[in-house]
Design brief:
Blueprint (H helix, E strand, L loop, with lengths): L4 H11 L3 E5 L3 H9 L4 E4 L1 H9 L9 H14 L4 E4 L7 H13 L4 E5 L18 H13 L7 E6 L1 H5 L1 H13 L4 E4 L5 H10 L4 E4 L11 H6 L4 E4 L2 H20 L12 H8 L1 H12 L1
Parallel strand pairs: 1-2, 1-8, 2-3, 3-4, 4-5, 5-6, 6-7, 7-8
Helix pairs in contact: 2-4, 5-6, 8-9
């Protein structure tokens, strides 16, 4: 019997210490991640806004925008996909629809946050949060919409930066009580604070190890020692790709050739290997005989 994406995510989470979840901004990145053994992948709202739509991470993209890339990735790989659904795109009915659509198109998990609708990047200043009660309603709506009991719903709190640790823990416990399967503790700065989260809750805690933010680049070993069960690398690959592309454009513009970049490139044959290109070509040749 085929396991659902949600069940696959839960299995990966149970087997890893912690589960490293890699951002994959497109289907080809997801293919590469799978083939090197990554057990869970991530579609970042910030990466999607920037790389698919050329927009900042301010809650501008819609459910339908996100579903386009969800479908592309889940068509390409069966690695369990965690999806950023920001604040859920509206009322309880919008949130419920989002959960049903994410499940329908093969996502394994989502995280939903407690910022106001015009959300900001979790590592930017001046974030505004909805009340604890309103976020509990969001979580309740998400949980009620599950069509797969194993679909994994993570509640994100941005309260550490704006309300302090005590309020953030209180919120996380309320979200747990509302049925969240995990907690995303955003913009935590100290390892001991991750430990406080982990000890205060009965569900797994996720640490967002994003670059250039408020959280240090803690290692898997360090986070495991304080009880963290999930590590997220939302934009690591995207940032590497963007910098490489910029370097490419600058070099070609200035020098009129890409020759000095060749040794930095993935070769044609490497691309074909990841895509299984030759098997497609062989199948095409057989059809023509």
């Amino acid at each position: 019997m085929t396991r659902s994406p949600g069940k696959q995510f839960r299995t990966a989470l149970a087997e890893a210490h912690p589960l490293q979840i890699m951002g994959t901004p497109n289907a080809y990145c997801a293919i590469m991640a799978k083939q090197i053994g990554i057990k869970s992948i991530y579609l970042s709202g910030g990466a999607l806004a920037a790389m698919s739509y050329g927009l900042p991470d301010l809650g501008i993209t819609t459910l339908e925008d996100v579903l386009v890339d969800v479908r592309r990735i889940t068509d390409a790989v069966d690695t369990p996909l965690l999806v950023d659904i920001d604040t859920g795109w509206g009322s309880m009915f919008n949130i419920q629809r989002a959960i049903r659509q994410m499940t329908k198109y093969g996502a394994a998990a989502v995280h939903i946050e407690d910022q106001i609708f015009a959300k900001r990047c979790g590592h930017r200043p001046n974030k505004e949060l909805v009340s604890k009660e309103e976020m509990v309603d969001r979580v309740t709506a998400a949980v009620s919409a599950k069509t797969d009991p194993d679909f994994f719903i993570i509640a994100r709190t941005d309260a550490v930066a704006s309300e302090g640790m005590s309020a953030a823990i209180e919120r996380a416990q309320a979200y747990q009580d509302a049925g969240a399967d995990g907690i995303f503790a955003e913009a935590v700065t100290e390892l001991v604070d991750y430990q406080i989260f982990a000890q205060a809750l009965d569900i797994p805690v996720l640490a967002n190890i994003t670059e250039f933010g408020k959280t240090a680049l803690f290692t898997a070993e360090e986070l495991s020692e304080v009880g963290i069960k999930m590590m997220l690398y939302p934009l690591t690959a995207a940032r590497m790709m963007n910098q490489a592309a910029l370097k490419c454009y600058q070099t070609v513009k200035i020098k009129g050739t890409q020759a000095e970049l060749i040794h930095h490139m993935q070769t044609r044959e490497e691309l074909y290997t990841f895509l299984g290109y030759h098997a497609y070509e062989d199948a095409l040749d057989k059809l023509r005989k």
